[in-house]
Amino acid sequence: MILVGAATALRVALLFVNQLELYPDEAQYWVWSRDLAFGYFSKPPMIAWLIRATTAIGGDGEAWIRMSAPLLHGAAALALYRVGRRLYGEQAGLWAAILYTLVPGVQLSSAVVATDAPLMLFLAIALWAYAAFWSEDSGRARRWAAVGLGAALGAAFLTKYAALYIAGGVAIHAIVSPQARKRWDLASIGLYLGAGLVIAAPNLIWNLAHHFQTVAHTAENADLSSDRGLKGLLGARGPFGFVLGQFGVFGPIPFAVVLAGTVLALRRRGTGADTLLLCLAAPAFIIVFGESIIARANANWAGAGYGAWIVFAAGLLERWRAGRLKAWTVGIQLAIALAFFAGVALPSLADAIGAGNAFKRARGWRADTMAIVAAARAAHAAQPLTAVTVDDRFLFNALSYYGRDARGVPAAALPAPLRAWIHLAKPANQAEAEAPLTAGNGRHALAVSATPEYLAAFKDDFHRTTPAAPAKINVKLDPRHDRSLELFLGDDFTARPRDPLTGRPVLP
User: Fold this and answer.
1) Is 351 contained in some domain?
2) 493 - beta bridge partners?
3) Whether residue 301 is found in the same domain as residue 420
4) For the segment 294-335, what is each residue's pLDDT rounded down to a tens digit?
5) What's the whole-model pTM score?
6) How far is residue 376's CA from residue 493's CA, in Å, rounded to a whole number?
7) How open is the CA angle 3-9-13, to the nearest 5 degrees?
8) Structural domain boundaries, residue 253
């Protein structure tokens, strides 16, 4: 697969010329990788394990932290080639690999370290295993495929709980397809469930030992109780924005092909392979679409279904003999990919065309860290600090990474321990859970606020506050945006009461 190999090599090379700093979630995953576990506050452990593996080879630089992403996406493209070949034939397999390689969302995901790349690989392997299970005549071969399906979904579960969408799709396919139901017997079901549970067990046990912390946080993130009104429904994270976003994240022509193919399949004009793929993709799209109506959803949250959609689109394009449509797809999505590569390698180019805002969250963190370290050392020289505390998890993560020492110890450049101020009644992220500001360590702290609406409550949790020097830090992110931080010295921290309903601080 020359295209997949070339794209992967280009993406790996891009990591070493990438001028964007770590996005704070990437920095958080790096912090996790310094202390390996079977689970973390907001995610299962796979992302931390991958970062630990790549940084053990090349060190703690941004490129090596992100190294797994392009490699895993390349492997996912090859796995989808095998799915397409089995379900539709050789040419469809080739187009599945090509389409996946050119998905706009994959371009972004290949340049950052996140749960998307390993999730897409393991789900692609699960699709491969299920395609084999569905198409094999040999009972022995089907049982091995059931083991592979369970193991792949178990590994995906260790990456992100969205793996359950595909497990749900397998169940839906068994309900709607008599052919699928005939494939399952008690031995296959036992092997499938057993393999999945064995692989997923370490995180399940960790969650049990930690009061299902990650599961609870995932549920809270859904925010199903929010009431956004009409503006929210019509916004980018509402149902209309979610559907329109698929044209951007998945690709304009491929998503249009998926929509047209779905309509034809519902009119009983599809094949058995079409039904299989649509069943596997359905839970991710339907559930996240429902979440966009009730609360909010980003377009990429349906990504667990993208592998099935890719193979479905490739099969349709082959069946329709849509040569011109294929050419337009490659042309448009290749242009998007090249534009993204140029923006990552040359952020000044993005600034020049007014697109710098797209990269602002991956800029300025090193400068912020150096300014805070300098302010902390100056304050510490005047009176020893017991903590440096922040009110924002992004800033906490960035300080942890860019304030590391030569051995990779997080925030070692600071003269006092880094602590997170807990805004609500209970911790909302891992920084607050594991490094909270308390009365014991908050006797004399340098406080840094990145969130203006929190500043009054932040100060009110100290018995006394005085201005820091400097009192404000401004870092330019692009020609139109900067990041502003407020600094003060706080003495004798004691958390004020929080409202029992909202969890927010109760101001006098």
Assistant:
1) no
2) 462
3) no
4) 888 888 999 999 999 999 999 999 999 999 999 999 999 999
5) 0.93
6) 18
7) 145
8) 2-18+66-212+224-343
